[in-house]
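Support reply, case 0932

Customer input (verbatim):
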Amino acid sequence: MCCCDKPNVNGELGYKWQPNDRPSVRRPDPPILTGHDTLLHDEPGRCGGQDSHCHHYRVIGGTWLALLYKNGGGEGRIRLSNSKAMRPILDALDSNGRYWLLNSIYHAYDDGKMNGAGRMDEEWRRAAVEKRIKTRKLPHNRGVKVWREPERIQEHVADVA
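Our regenerated output:
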């Protein structure tokens, strides 16, 4: 929970975790760059309207763009674009606007991933109950093939009296 007196960015004096804390500096905690990453934007966590101190974003790329993120749940990469078209848009934003846009992209991605996984789990659970999950060993100990048979559509036949 953020109790900062005014909006601030990690690395600046002003961060307060509890209302009675003295203002301090929250250290930026960026996602790790690999040897071939070209850093375009580095946006440490911040607050202002909502507490987002634990999310740090970086945009990397060249002819393509990717969003690197790090938060309490770990770190990862999200492909933003296969072209340079988005780069001038991100470049035109100030740091605060760019941070909140990247934050929105991250949360939309995370929500989609969680919702998709939930739907897939439900489909496999339903297939298990209906005994539609099939398996077959592959030859030469190459593993096992697993699939779901399609749902049967039951026709409702009206009683003819």
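We compared this against your earlier run and they match. Two observations from our side: Residues 95-129 form the longest helix (35 residues). Strands lie at 13-15, 24-25, 39-43, 46-47, 51-52, 56-61, 65-71, 74-81, 133-137, 144-148. Please reopen the case if you see a mismatch on your end.
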